[in-house]
Amino acid sequence: METYWMEFAAPVGEIIVMADDEAVTHIEFSAKYRPAGKPQLNAILTRAQKQLAEYFAGKREEFDLPIKLEGTAFQRKVWKALEKIPFGQTRTYGQIAKTVKSPAASRAVGAACGRNPLPIVVPCHRVVGSSGSLTGFGGGLAMKEWLLKHEGASMKG
């Protein structure tokens, strides 16, 4: 299957968005993950570009994109739980662990968040530490803080 990709200049820095013929497959925050070849859009990436622009302009709270989440069964359960966190709200790793019926798996939830192939669209930035403090994020804590402030989420730490 063909891989398409684009560079998206966001207020938080350059984002690389990848898709195949069916769905958005990856979002990366670093140019070091840039696929080979020249950027090439398809209809799915055109939709993603529009929706990301709307999100960063404060005009979109939810994404309506075909997505492909490849991972373990546990990771996919966590990612589905992340998609249910409302815009402007946060949940702790422990709360997500309880949601996926693995209450002792807070660290595993954190690891699943770290492997999320579609940050922003699958909002792992909305997961915080048990005290409400900001913890790990693939784009860095400054980006996580920016995204949460952009959404109007209350934060501690």
* H/E series: EEEHHEHHEH
Low-pLDDT regions = none
Q: Sum up the overall morphology in one term.
A: globular
Helices, by number, come to 5
For the biggest β-sheet, the strand order reads 1-2-3
Strand content: 5-15%
The beta-strand count equals: 5
| Major sheet summary line | 3 strands, antiparallel
First and last CA, distance: 44 Å
Q: What descriptors fit this protein?
A:
15% strand, 157 residues, three-stranded antiparallel sheet
Question: What this model shows, in words?
Answer:
The structure is a single chain. This protein is α+β, with helices and mostly antiparallel strands and 157 residues long. It is 33% helix and 15% strand. It contains five helices and five strands. It has a three-stranded antiparallel beta sheet with strand order 1-2-3, with helices on one face. A hairpin with a 2-residue loop joins strand 1 (4-10) and strand 2. The longest helix is centred in the N-terminal third of the chain and has 14 residues, at 43-56. The termini are far apart.
